[in-house]
Design a protein that fits this description.
Blueprint lengths: L4 H6 L5 E3 L8 H9 L4 E4 L5 H14 L4 E6 L5 H10 L4 E5 L4 H9 L3 E6 L2 H9 L5 E4 L5 E2 L5 H11 L4 E4 L5 H9 L4 E4 L1 H4 L8 H9 L5 E4 L7 E4 L2 H10 L6 H7 L3 H8 L21 H17 L7
Parallel strand pairs: 1-9, 2-3, 3-4, 4-5, 5-6, 6-8, 8-9
Antiparallel strand pairs: 7-11, 10-11
Helix pairs in contact: 2-3, 3-4, 8-14
The structure holds ligand TUI.
Ligand TUI binds next to strand 7.
């Protein structure tokens, strides 16, 4: 059995977080992961507080186990979501795409455990100072908003920069990834892309099919010009978008406009002009299965590898 300090800290059975994917990680998916013994995480994304509250209620009808809510700090609704999370007394908050400092007092005062995503050593030190209880070190292999460093380079440097438990994310989808993360000093993993293939993940069938069919080189990063790099599948939309980024006759405003609503279009409509966020590990995600089977498979795979890890030490 795999047990680490993050299990005790959060009251979960397996050190597996499900990433808070905008428009995707709803109360149903998060409940399935939490019920399976991992940490299910509801994504607030760009949604208003009422929508997120509803997802929390859906989750609470399905499980009594601990769960988290991810606050996307670039959201125009971040303030109202932050307040609602205090009212709902959610056990865990993860944050992404920014600096969570302005909410820390409010959340810690309500007894909420805060686990920010950190893309750098500087952000790790900052959130350690302001009261985070753990950090998620997410490398640029991940889907969605990405930092500069890879998981391999980021995780050990984050571990050296803080005494807090570190969760590794980005490019992890099986027991090998989990075992490798542990070798780098992490005590848990967060996975997004693998959970896209969960039965309980209610994305459009076209999205699921694209993930199941994707190969190793089928993702790309767009959005650098506007300062919000995002990894997604290499669709005609993504290729067209990046061409426009390099075209000086296209204004920043036009580019901004092109990105509006594209995540929702992919998730809910499977539309051609949607943006299909995905990590680089999609090439290894080849079958649909339950969230519980995913959690168990990853932990069992890691256990086998870790038990044999001393074979190379003579
Ligand atoms: O947040 C994510 N992944 C995401 S968010 C998203 S929705 C979106 N909407 C509009 C623009 C961009 C994205 C889709 N996927 N992952 C966690 C993450 N956080 N990755 C990197 C970071 C991050 C980056 C900078 C965390 C902190 C940070 O701090 C910068 C600073 O100094 O404020």
């Amino acid at each position: 059995m795999i047990k680490t300090p993050i299990c005790e800290l959060l009251g979960i059975e397996y050190p597996v977080f499900q990433g808070g994917m905008a428009w995707i990680a709803d109360g149903v998916l998060a409940a399935a992961v939490s019920e399976a013994g991992g940490l299910g995480i509801i994504a607030a994304g760009n949604a208003p507080a009422d929508y997120v509250r509803e997802q929390i209620h859906i989750l609470r009808q399905r499980t009594q186990k601990p769960f988290g809510v991810n606050v996307m700090l670039l959201s125009p609704f971040a303030d109202e979501v932050a307040e609602m999370l205090v009212e709902e007394k959610v056990p865990v908050v993860t944050t992404g795409a920014g600096n969570p400092s302005k909410y820390m007092k409010q959340w810690l005062g309500a007894g909420i455990k805060v686990i920010p995503v950190v893309p750098s050593v500087a952000m790790t030190k900052l959130v350690t100072r302001v009261g985070a209880c753990a950090v998620i070190a997410e490398g640029g292999e991940s889907g969605g908003h990405v930092g500069d460093l890879t998981t391999m380079a980021l995780v050990p440097q984050v571990c050296d920069a803080t005494n807090l438990p570190v969760i590794a994310a980005g490019g992890i989808a099986d027991g090998r990834g989990m075992a490798a993360a542990f070798m780098l000093g992490a005590v848990g993993v967060q996975m997004g892309t693998r959970f896209l293939a969960a039965y309980e993940c209610n994305i459009h069938p076209t999205y699921k099919e694209k993930i199941l069919k994707a190969k190793d080189i089928d993702t790309m990063v767009t959005g650098k010009r506007l300062g919000h790099p995002v990894r997604s599948l290499k669709t005609s939309f993504a290729r067209d978008y990046i061409k426009k980024e390099y075209d000086s006759t296209v204004s920043d405003e036009e580019l901004e406009q092109l990105g509006v609503g594209v995540l929702r279009l992919a998730v809910q409509e499977g539309a051609e002009n949607g943006c299909y966020l995905s990590g680089q590990i999609a090439g290894m995600v080849n079958k649909e299965e339950s969230a519980a089977d995913i959690v168990k498979d990853v932990c069992q795979g890691a256990e086998t590898i870790l038990k044999g890890a001393s074979q190379w030490v003579k």
